[in-house]
Amino acid sequence: MATVLSVSGSPSASSRTNRLLRHLDDRLVAQGHEVTPLDVRTIPAEALLGADFRHPAIVGATELFARADGVVVGTPVYKASYSGVLKALLDLLPQYALAGKTVLPLATGGSTAHVLAIDYALRPVLSSMGAAHIVQGWFTLDKDITVRDDGSLAVAAPADQALSQVVDRFSAALGRTPVLAAAG
Ligand SMILES: Cc1cc2nc3c(=O)[nH]c(=O)nc-3n(C[C@H](O)[C@H](O)[C@H](O)COP(=O)(O)O)c2cc1C
Fold it and tell me: Membrane spanning segments where (predicted)?
């Protein structure tokens, strides 16, 4: 069993990214992992925008990263990249906050034109933070994510299958990650 931190990087109160991550958390829990959700939008704006490293919410988030064996990082695609609030949080974490960790990058977006945003924008940042293993990520179109009347989530068939596969690969990679000492 591994400890997983599941970070949703959307500022939206009705975030599809957030819903999707919480849906995928259930799959990881069913596989025996302990999953802690972290929604960046719940961190006070003054802490994020004022670069207040000592704010309890930032200290708490830093501890969650430190404790995790694996981290799911989900973001909406905004302006062909990941969200600003996600970057604001990542900027306040220690330089090698992902050292020794397995990371699953996920994105939701409105257009397949930006399907590669995970690879050209998010992955280099995760790598610079020392991630030991960044597994294959997945981009999900927002139109494939539906919230049913009862509040549950439905993901359109091909996307659902692909997401299950990347989550299962991430799950399998947890525990196989070599522990690398943080450089510097
Ligand atoms: C300000 C803004 C910028 C966006 N820019 C893009 C974009 O460049 N490419 C894209 O594919 N989708 C873009 N979208 C669509 C969102 O990525 C998509 O609807 C996503 O699922 C929203 O996730 P959320 O509900 O978690 O915030 C944008 C949406 C907003 C609100």
Answer: none
